[in-house]
Amino acid sequence: MKKMKSSILLFATTVLVLVLSASFAPAQDKITLRFSAHADQWGNVAAMIKLYESRNPNIDIVWVDEPEGADVHHDRDVTMFAAKDGSLDVIVVDVIWPPEFAPAGWLMPLDEYFPPEEQKKHVPAMIDAQTVGGHIYGIPYLNDIGNFYYRSDILEKGGMEVPDTWMDLVNTCQKLQNPPELFGFIPCFWKEQQLSCNFVEYLWSNGGEYLDKTGKEVLFNKEKGVEALQFMVDLVNKYKVTQTGVLSMSLEEGRTIFTEGHAIFHRNWNYVWNMAQGEESKIAGKTGVDSIPRFPGGEHVTCLGGWSHSVNNFSEHKDEAAKFAVFMSSWEVQKYRALNGLRTPTILKLLSDPDVVAKHPVYPRLMEIAYGARARPKTPFYTQISDVIQKEMHEALLQRKSAKEALDIAAEEIEFVIQ
Amino acid sequence: MKIRRKDKVRKSASIFEKVNRIRREGLTRKQLGYVLVIPTLAVIACIAIFPFIITANYSFHTIKLNVPQLGRPYVGFENYIRLLGSSRFIDSFKITLFFASIVVVAQLLFGLAIALVLNKEFKGRGAIRATILAPWAIALIIVAQFWKWMYNGVFGIINFFFLSLGIIDKPVDWLGESASLAISSVIVTELWRNTPFMAIVILAGLQSIPGELYEAAKIDGAGVFQKFRRITIPLLKPAILVALLFRSIDAFRAFDLLYALTRGGPGNSTELASLYAYKLLFGYLDFGRGSAATIMMAIFTTALCLAYLKLIRIE
Amino acid sequence: MHRTTSLKRILSNKFTPLHIVTYVFTGIFVFFFIFPLYWQIVTAMKPPQEIYKIPPLWFPTTPYLERFYNVLIKREGFLLNIRNSFIVSSCTTFLCLSLSVLSSYAIARIRIRGGEMMLIIILVLSMLPGVAIIGPLYLIWKQIQLINTMFCLVITYVAFFLPFSIWFLASFFKTIPPDLEEAAILDGCTPLQALVKIIIPLAAPAIFTIAMLVYIFSWNEFLFALTFTRSDSARTIPVGIYMFHGLHEIPWGDIAAACTIVTIPIVVLVIIFQKYVIQGLTAGALKG
Known about the structure:
Mean pLDDT of chain C: 77
CATH topology of the largest domain in chain C: MetI-like fold
CATH class of the largest domain in chain C: Mainly Alpha
Helix content of chain A: 40-55%
Number of helices of chain C: 13
Largest sheet of chain C: none
Number of strands of chain C: 0
Strand content of chain C: under 5%
Number of domains of chain C: 2
Structural class of chain C: mainly alpha
Helix content of chain C: over 70%
Radius of gyration of chain A: 24 Å
Oligomer: heterotrimer
Largest sheet of chain A: 4 strands, mixed
């Protein structure tokens, strides 16, 4: 009797001790800086970290990778900042986050480390997006814009040109598409940030505006905006040139349709170019990239995406963190990453650097398109605004509300928020 | 009341005399009982109660993390009033109710049917039982990823399955074509994932019904349906009610599945209350309103829980 | 007491419409539950070019097993994630069981004052949506420097699964007739000894059921694991698999392979335990 009791106790104690020891072991070994960045299948980040550590032997960098999708990533970072948690020293931020994070005091101003002379070397729109209240909060390293991809072979066979206006696109699609083997156009209308990116492209290319200059008045529900949204609704319902599942497919799912050869046109970020030429793609050598179509009377614009390195304002090693952030966005690293992977650099000269262009002949064209890139509105409420608009846009796309109604409702709610 | 010796005295008693008595003679049975629940209470207090109180506190303030200049002023019930007046919040509650009730009823019927089948002995029963449980053992987030792939409008297997059977004549966007279709698809995934649990609980209940009752009924000439109505259902009631309780609460709290499958879309037709609350908190950075939303959810689930408990008591 | 319907009986009644319906229904639901699993395994084994074929292939032309190697070895973190899930689930189950057995005994047998009330309160508490406490809880763990450890996950999970375990076990304990216990105490056992030697063996099936449930719940939990962990050395499997997503790429093949790897041991576990549970329930629960 006693034996069983005491052996149980002994067992229990052992296990408890194991639990505590196994789990108390902090998940880091020698920390100095913790760097959070995206998963990187080419080993570039690891290589660059090693390089930095060899040049700065007193610094150890621990790389923490982040989950998919800007939204999840955003929510994770918010949890961290809300707890004033400085455990991640250097982080990557999406181009729309600084206006949100900076006023809350979560990012460290980097003017000292990233002065205007350096800033000039990067894509202007990205610098603009990272600047809030006159200070700069992020050092760009990944350039991304919305591109219009097309199948040159199909267009050639069909005797059609690359569409200039949206109606050209519709006509070409209706002529050449053949669902379900070949869809016309693959945008991204799922209920996430991508929908907003798509929407602004239609809005801006129609000459419309999102918010006014003060950022206090909503302009997207004016006539130009309604036209833009109505066109999107028509794309799906009236002209029927989009894929089955256009409202529920994520960005990647849509991209897959294109690289498997089942679509003529596709709107997506820079990475698709290289994927399209990759070994798993069925359309290598048969694609082209151009600016996104416009409405008559409007201009070719594109939505600015991209990522920057920022420093957590609660970090305990802000100086070292800032220097590391500068390094990871430097010419050296960006060139390395361009030559060894698919991340488009933000430093303008690199986009026309001979080594880089040799590897990625499409970059100069991307640079041209990039000059037409515009950043989304810089308000601290952008995530909220974007979410409201997405919801209402879906109502319109599902044809449960008219385009005007949807935008008006969205406008009302948003105006309440930004007052 | 028995007095017994105990080796370790962990509780620091309230009264001097009690302490002395314990020192001398050991804990009484009742006192032992209290000691045994202390660790449990401690853990629950720290992990569940304390943070909950903090959240409740937040709900009475305006807390917008992205506008810290506002400070954190006390605003009383303003967050609650705004939420109750917001059609989006009311919608999310309605959707949650709809989703939960359909899911629970369907799981009950489906689970009962499966349990009845599994109750009979036949070859391969063990294997079937085990594989039935497999869906329920997989993480929701993975289930969601997977069903999303199957529901895919262009590559998904479900479209092809129904197309080849002739049930539909062109591919369907299961998660986006319309609000009702989206909710239905989500419900199907939820059923796939959680019915096994219901089935197993009911099965355990079925197996505890003594066989003699059925034998006796048969001798009395009762048919299959009569046996079912008079014996099976009444004796199963406790098991069913408990299973229902947990499944309903889970259905109300459903989050992982919907987050990965639809993010609440299309529009907000699959935005359950938990999704909306999460969005308020981490998307909009509005901890005031977000906390209020979660508190309201908690109040609702509490009321539901108490109602169920009353029902179980009555049985 | 087994409730059996022998095969002979079924066969002799095989033309009853009820039986036909039963067989058809069985066929349908087995298919419904198994097909997605089959599809997952098939997708994991398809070579990359075949995953996106239209119309989809029901079967890979050649099994592509390299992917399993990729997932386990090339993605260095994943093996760690598996280890972590093991540790977290085992510890959670053990702690949860220990605490809930003790507490259920106190409430159901010793009948401490306020026991019923306690039961109701903690049950109601367990119904809290996770979203309601995740923010403040993160704060607390961070304050005491335990964020990104498996410890904080274990304790959080224990707190969440305790109420259900206690409720379940307490209900079960109540059905055990008190005479056995009283006899043991008369013989000179202390209450704790009675608990260990009489109640626990009698309640073994219920305890096993709870153990299985808690293990699986903690294995699959996602929201807290995602929020509280930062690096692979503390991450559990659901978050690990979720991290397979790159910035733009969704490797469906890899995800399917990882899921397959992870699902199979769980299914095996479930097979082993469920036999025990059902047998135990029928044998043990009907003493009177």
